[in-house]
């Protein structure tokens, strides 16, 4: 770190002396003066090093942020720095630049810092996003730390990139774990970070060789405008980023000429070329100062009217946004439940509201339902002290070799006597083991949590005393483990039972998050007992035994068919205060690209949550690749991979957002619809995407040129409530609720209308699927409020459709074709609660082959992963994604 501080200071002095640098968007940009004697390459290197210095100084800040309440725990961040470095960091935290950086992080801004963080993220970092559990050091880090401590001379800092292929349970790294020192024989090494080279294009502006008179200046602007227009007209569509720069420059020239409408038109073109450089403030000022006559003309042009409306609405939103940043402070007054929830979330200990409610009950046992500042302080301090002590645990190499590299020691008992010897009982996320004491500390396996058969407390007589003893029986050993834990016995009894129950839940439901939740519960129990120090502390801690109580009160058996088909569960709402409904799922296959990072070639799972949020998973490891970037503020309705580098996302705000899959950012959008986007489909010719069709709720269908993003054709259906579209053999099938319309894709001419006895049913089409068979095309459809599937042969809609009744189903919510099967998601009820069920139906036999009970809420979304897996997403009561194997 001393080297980094030196570089920071040298660069800062150099920058101020030469007056070359300014900071923008958390990135140092270079302004190279004309005629400078230094080499241009040197100037280009300096901002990169400033940028990287900022990045490495600030990257661990995110571990001490609370996004819900916009809190930064600066004191806890400083404690993770070396004592000698803390004054330096304290000064950094006081700067305006750092405050701006904090606001950008809390706003989840996808700026240059966020993009660099994403590009250098390890698999461990991504797993940490999924499982937000108290930080502990893995055995792999312990071993690495021990190796590093043996060689401290002649080393330099480089970025550590763990093997991304290994799926590991997480741990939040200790201080400076993002750095790894390696030996080098070349003096002071430079930072080794591969940054892809940026292509440079040159545009020659007209020369200035005239007196600065009005006519000459006017002619110059005209010539400049014409040069830019020529460049725009000759650029191919795939050069959209460069095209955006030309539109931007031409807009500025039009502005200088006083042609405000032309300027707005060019700025409006940035929507489809590169939205990142859109000058929002400049456009707003143009609109505010525009003469009434020109404003009238702008309002008559639909695209400019939408642009003006969007910019002015965004300004109103900015004034409403709470942009403050608070520093965490311990409470000074008594707290009711709501205030306690907020304070615990701000502290970073737990975010889940249900868990915090149980913690509140535990800390208020025997008292009125409020918590005093002293109790909160004692609990907080005990938690932090335990966390710090755990970081100092240093297992001998002989013990580490018995553990998996991702295991962490979460709790150590006092030294106790057991029937396996004298030592300390250690708890990891997978097992219990005895850290034996004596001349050479050793490892004795006690039990893996999935192997436990029984846990109970007994007493052993010793002289006149009865010593509490913990007994653990396992399937793999005949001998029962016994430990004389004395005063710790009751707490360890609670801890082992909770971990046992959590592991069973995790295995039964194929959901690793349960074991992480159980870990959090047992650490909260430990902190409650340590903070209360009373006769009721064990009873209070038992309030946090969530999984053990669930196992005893509501034994949940997973049906055999469900267990065999279910492969894994993931939670896109991990780290949020409550589960969020999954609105849309999209799987995109991996592809090889030599210009990208290796993990960019991995397949991805895109998950749309409420209020425009998108979470992206690496589908090769099911770890979060990008956590929660936002597309507007409205519900997202559809997602489709238009080509390898583009994912289009439709929203209820009538905008189609275009995501660049390389940068994982939204730099383009389509604004031609006037109502909620409901569906997007892609037409391929010879396997290559040719056109994209989008639909909106008001009945509008637009055909897009994928390369230029221009409208090829548009059509208004003769009815409203257009909810979905399907493409088959140059026909567009449109579901409008009251009927299904079949249109030709070239002329948008109506060819067929299907409205089978909807008036009799008093319902509407909810979803439909086209299923090509050998000799014909079948239409599968469902109605609102119905548990029946209807199947038509599209050659004869006059005949009665086949009907398949789905048992225990209230309503069919979604369906997809996978091989020769139809997977149907539904909503139902069980014991007064909503549940989600998936039916796997044979298209050939027209019978239900499987009924899968995998969700505790309505199945809202389905998608296929290369016909090998099906992924299902649930409503807000559960908010999880299930991964099912296709046979």
Automatic annotation (TrEMBL):
Organism: Anser brachyrhynchus (Pink-footed goose)
Protein's GO biological process: regulation of Rab protein signal transduction
Any one GO CC term of the record: cytoplasmic vesicle
Pfam families in UniProt: TPR_DENND3
Limits of the dDENN domain: 42-105
GO MF annotation terms: guanyl-nucleotide exchange factor activity
Phylogenetic classification of the source organism: Eukaryota, Metazoa, Chordata, Craniata, Vertebrata
PANTHER family listed in its UniProt record: DENN DOMAIN-CONTAINING PROTEIN 3, DENN DOMAIN-CONTAINING PROTEIN 4
Name of the protein described by the UniProt record: DENN domain containing 3
């Amino acid at each position: 770190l001393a080297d980094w501080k030196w570089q920071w200071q040298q660069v800062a002095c150099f920058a101020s002396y030469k007056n070359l640098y300014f900071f923008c968007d958390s990135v140092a940009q270079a302004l190279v003066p004309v005629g400078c004697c230094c080499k241009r390459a040197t100037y280009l290197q300096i901002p990169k090093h400033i940028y990287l210095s900022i990045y490495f100084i600030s990257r661990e800040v995110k571990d001490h942020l609370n996004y819900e309440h916009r809190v930064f725990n600066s004191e806890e961040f400083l404690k993770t720095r070396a004592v000698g470095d803390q004054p330096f960091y304290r000064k950094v935290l006081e700067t305006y630049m750092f405050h701006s950086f904090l606001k950008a992080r809390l706003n989840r801004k996808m700026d240059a810092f966020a993009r660099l963080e994403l590009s250098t993220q390890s698999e461990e970092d991504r797993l940490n996003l999924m499982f937000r559990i108290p930080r502990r050091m893995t055995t792999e880090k312990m071993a690495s730390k021990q190796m590093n401590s043996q060689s401290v001379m002649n080393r330099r800092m480089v970025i550590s990139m763990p093997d991304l292929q290994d799926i590991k349970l997480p741990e939040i790294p200790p201080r400076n774990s993002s750095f790894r020192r390696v030996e080098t024989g070349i003096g002071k090494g430079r930072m080794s970070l591969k940054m892809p080279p940026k292509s440079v294009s040159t545009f020659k502006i007209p020369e200035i060789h005239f007196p600065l008179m009005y006519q000459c200046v006017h002619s110059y602007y005209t010539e400049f405008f014409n040069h830019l227009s020529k460049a725009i007209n000759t650029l191919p569509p795939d050069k959209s980023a460069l095209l955006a720069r030309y539109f931007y420059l031409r807009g500025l020239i039009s502005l200088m000429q006083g042609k405000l409408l032309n300027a707005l038109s060019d700025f409006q073109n940035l929507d489809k070329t590169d939205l990142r450089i859109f000058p929002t403030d400049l456009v707003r000022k143009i609109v505010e100062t525009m003469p009434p006559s020109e404003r009238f003309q702008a309002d008559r042009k639909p695209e400019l009217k939408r642009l003006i409306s969007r910019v002015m609405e965004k300004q109103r939103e900015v004034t409403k946004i709470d942009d403050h940043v608070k520093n965490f402070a311990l409470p000074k007054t008594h707290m009711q439940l709501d205030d306690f929830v907020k304070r615990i979330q701000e502290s970073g200990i737990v975010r889940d509201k249900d868990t915090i409610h149980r913690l509140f009950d535990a800390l208020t046992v025997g008292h009125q339902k409020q918590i005093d500042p002293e109790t909160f302080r004692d609990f907080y301090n005990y938690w932090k002290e335990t966390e710090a002590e755990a970081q100092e645990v240093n297992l001998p190499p002989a013990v580490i070799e018995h553990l998996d590299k991702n295991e962490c020691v979460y709790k150590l008992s006092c030294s106790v006597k057991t029937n396996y010897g004298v030592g300390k009982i250690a708890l990891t996320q997978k097992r219990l083991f005895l850290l034996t004491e004596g001349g050479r500390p050793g490892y004795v396996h006690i039990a893996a949590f999935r192997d436990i058969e029984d846990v109970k407390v007994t007493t052993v007589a010793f002289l006149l005393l009865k010593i509490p003893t913990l007994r653990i029986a396992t399937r793999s050993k005949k001998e029962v483990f016994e430990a004389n834990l004395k005063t710790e016995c009751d707490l360890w009894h609670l801890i082992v039972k909770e971990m046992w129950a959590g592991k069973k839940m995790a295995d039964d439901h194929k959901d690793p998050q349960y074991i992480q939740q159980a870990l959090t519960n047992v650490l909260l129990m430990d902190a409650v007992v340590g903070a209360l120090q009373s006769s009721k502390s064990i009873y209070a801690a038992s309030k946090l035994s969530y999984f053990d109580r669930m196992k005893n009160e509501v034994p949940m058996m997973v049906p055999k068919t469900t267990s065999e088909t279910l492969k894994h569960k993931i939670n896109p709402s991990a780290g949020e205060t409550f589960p969020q409904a999954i609105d849309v799922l999209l799987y995109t296959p991996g592809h090889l690209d030599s210009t990208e990072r290796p993990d960019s070639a991995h397949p991805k799972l895109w998950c749309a949550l409420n209020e425009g949020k998108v979470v992206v998973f690496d589908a090769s490891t099911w770890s979060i690749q990008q956590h929660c970037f936002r597309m507007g503020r409205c519900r997202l309705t559809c997602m489709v991979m238009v080509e390898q580098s583009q994912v289009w996302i439709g929203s209820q705000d009538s905008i189609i957002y275009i995501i660049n899959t390389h940068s994982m950012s939204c730099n383009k959008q389509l604004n031609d619809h006037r109502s909620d986007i409901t569906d997007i489909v892609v037409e391929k010719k010879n396997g290559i995407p040719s056109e994209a069709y989008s639909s909106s709720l008001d009945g509008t269908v637009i055909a897009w040129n994928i390369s230029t993003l221009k409208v090829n054709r548009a059509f208004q259906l003769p009815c409203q409530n257009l909810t979905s579209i399907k493409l088959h053999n140059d026909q567009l099938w449109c579901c409008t609720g009251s009927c299904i319309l079949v249109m030709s894709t070239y002329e948008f001419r109506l060819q067929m209308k299907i409205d089978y006895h909807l008036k009799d049913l008093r319902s509407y089409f909810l979803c439909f699927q086209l299923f090509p068979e050998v000799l014909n095309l079948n239409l599968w459809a469902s109605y609102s409020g119905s548990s029946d599937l209807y199947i038509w042969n599209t050659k004869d809609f006059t005949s009665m459709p086949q009907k398949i009744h789905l048992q225990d189903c209230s309503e069919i919510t979604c369906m997809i074709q996978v091989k020769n099967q139809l997977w149907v998601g539904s909503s139902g009820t069980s014991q007064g609660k909503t549940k989600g069920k998936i039916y796997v139906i044979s298209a050939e036999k027209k019978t239900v082959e499987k009924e899968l009970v995998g969700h505790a809420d309505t199945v809202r979304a389905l998608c296929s992963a290369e016909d090998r897996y099906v992924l299902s997403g649930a409503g807000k009561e559960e908010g999880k994604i299930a991964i099912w194997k296709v046979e």
